[in-house]
């Protein structure tokens, strides 16, 4: 039985959440760009639904992470990966590329309810396992000035949808239905269940 895993994610929030479960892990960094491009195709394909997109990306990250261990001659352990999307009117809002896009995201979500989907995937021997958390988040009405001030902070720019539920954006959140940790980027219920299914002792 394995006593630790690799986490294929650069997200400090995912690392902190995994620590909450008491799971021993080492970060496994995949290449985001370079001469050969990114290790995993994180672009949404034409006609691909948000649900299929987030599941495919998480599963591909985990599967590729397992292959990376062999390529880098690293000790083989399970690889955990995750991907999160924010969905408004069926459209995926990714990480905003600039301040103007971040402000546009805030205006689009202002006074409305949107969906957050996070898929967590686990790769080891055999087929990749995965589970998806689906939550809804309702924002109160956000003034243009509030959106500008929020987007002047560093917070929106490394997060799906351009906001962090655990940060200043909590001021905008009127209601959440679903998984708080799922909205943060690593749903602990689904993560713990996957790990326990393959023999990890969480409690």
Key phrases:
203 residues; alpha/beta; Maf protein; seven-stranded mixed β-sheet
Please sum up the structure shown.
By secondary structure, this protein is α/β, with parallel strands linked by helices. It is built from six helices and seven strands. Strands 1, 2, 3, 4, 5, 6 and 7 form a seven-stranded mixed beta sheet that branches.
Backbone shape: elongated
CATH architecture: Alpha-Beta Complex
Order of helices and strands: EHEHEEHEEHEHH
In the CATH hierarchy, the third-tier topology is known as Maf protein
Into which percent range does the helicity of residues fall?
25-40%
In the residues, how many domains can be counted?
1
- How many alpha or pi helices? 6
Poorly predicted sequence stretches spanning 5 or more consecutive residues: 33-37
Q: Please tell me the overall pLDDT.
A: 92
Radius of gyration, whole Å? 17 Å
Fraction of residues in β-strands: 15-25%
């Amino acid at each position: 039985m394995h006593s630790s895993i690799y986490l294929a994610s650069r997200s400090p929030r995912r690392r902190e959440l995994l620590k909450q479960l008491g799971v021993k892990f080492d970060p496994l960094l995949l290449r985001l760009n370079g001469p050969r491009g990114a290790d995993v195709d994180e672009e949404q394909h034409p006609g691909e639904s948000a649900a299929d997109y987030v599941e495919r990306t998480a599963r591909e990250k985990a599967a590729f992470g397992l292959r990376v261990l062999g390529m880098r001659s690293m000790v083989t352990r399970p690889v955990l990966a995750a991907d999160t999307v924010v969905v408004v009117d069926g459209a995926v809002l990714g990480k905003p590329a600039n301040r103007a896009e971040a402000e546009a995201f805030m205006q689009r979500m202002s006074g409305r309810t949107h969906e957050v989907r996070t898929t967590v995937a686990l790769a080891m021997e055999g087929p990749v396992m995965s589970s998806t958390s689906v939550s809804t988040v309702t924002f109160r009405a956000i003034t243009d000035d509030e959106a500008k001030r929020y987007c002047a902070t560093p917070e929106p720019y490394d997060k799906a949808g351009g906001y962090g539920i655990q940060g200043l954006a909590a001021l905008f959140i009127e209601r959440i239905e679903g998984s708080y940790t799922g909205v943060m980027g690593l749903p602990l219920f689904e993560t713990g269940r996957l790990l326990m299914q393959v023999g990890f002792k969480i409690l």
